[in-house]
Amino acid sequence: MDDDVPPPPRPPPLLPPESLLHLCSHGYLGLELPHHLADKYNQLLATSDAFFAQPAETKRLYRPGTGLGPEHRGPPTSATNTERGYTHIDGEKEYLTLRKSMTHLPPGIYDAAAPLWHDTANLLHRILGDIGVYLGLEPTAWDGVVADSLEPSDGIYDDDGDDKGGKGKEKDGEGAKDGEGAKDDKGENKGEKPGSGRPRTHPRDDPPTLLRLFRYEPGGGGAEQHRDLGLLTLCVCWGKGLQVRPQRPPQPQPQPQSAVDSREPSQAPPQPPVPWLNAPRVTVMTGDTLHVLSSYRIPSAQHRVVVDAKEAVESAGESKADDDSNSSNNNKETRSSESRRSIVFALRSTTAGDIDLAAFGGYGSVPARELYDNIRKSRVNINANKEARAVMRAEYERVRGKGKGLKEVGPKSEMEEGDKQPKPDNGEGVDDDSTLEGELVGVA
Q1: Cα–Cα distance measured from residue 375 to residue 437, given in angstroms and rounded to the nearest whole number
Q2: What is the value of pTM for the model shown?
Q3: Domain spanning 17-179+191-246+273-356: which superfamily?
Q4: What is the superkingdom listed in this entry's lineage (predicted)?
Q5: Distance (Å, rounded) from C-alpha 190 to C-alpha 181?
Q6: H or E segment at 324?
Q7: Per-residue pLDDT tens digits for 170-192
């Protein structure tokens, strides 16, 4: 046997050709998870159900913020942050957002989430390889933009070296700027954690990729029509509500006008809207960053979460019955298993270093953070509360009315932002949720 046979240029394709074509044409695809990964999703669901069933005052300990007292267990970021920690939107939904550092988590979440993060990130990385081949790129083209998101961290942050699940108080690291270690009482950089053998990092140094656990309130809670910000999103649902919209089929070329049909083109009947479809229970969806890096050949998946009318009616009836009976035991905090739930993993591009556009058929390179920020600007954050969404949308309309906004960004064009100047960095990096997030209606 010849020992000099080179290895194959790429792993065997993961997706069948027809599935890959559907994903690259419409932006979404139903998947059947491997048994071991499906089991991990069920385990994380059970753990998150147990957390959501806790009293409200217990869950609020994990919301983001600073100066919230010694019992606070949430991440030390802005209290309005929706990209980390626990968030509750009254009458709609509650959710817990995890980032790579895996700190500041309720008990049990880390052990269920860390192996799921690893397997899901690598599954989506593999799908990106198939998409790269579809686009005529090298299957490794995406490696550099996702390398820092593929493995979760160990959940250790505090100096004691054994704080799994984010139980620590952030004594020394709070407020450290990106890329800097904490400083001791003399103002000297500590550099590395005692006994850990690894550099200290602040949770704000995390890449943008996230894992989010949702529980929708019965009869309420959804998400407006939107596109996702990142590369690929995997959504696993328990209960109906997620809907996707296929891309409109290509239109035939206009034919020469005949004497039989003398109408002006503007008088032609409008095309019917493309209908929304109920998404498969496990769905992978493309995002805006993939759309940009593919030179706009791969569409971003349009999707939304709707409330079933029957569920809303039944929930309203239950609420009235509860009010009439003044029952204090049959409250929403104890009914998480009856609600629609979902687990969403959003694989996003790195914000560190430069992205080589030659790998995607372009030329030169672009700072990864600049690419992320330019895609992210002028968007409405659909996961903020109703009042914040209204303010963001009004600001978006005001900016759009002045003719400012994102011009084309990608391998075939230069990055331009009209006459709009970048927002000054406030020290919170990619966690600054005052930036608008939405263009169609919203982007998650």
Answers
A1: 9
A2: 0.75
A3: B-lactam Antibiotic, Isopenicillin N Synthase; Chain (2.60.120.330)
A4: Eukaryota
A5: 6
A6: helix 309-325
A7: 333 333 333 333 333 333 333 33
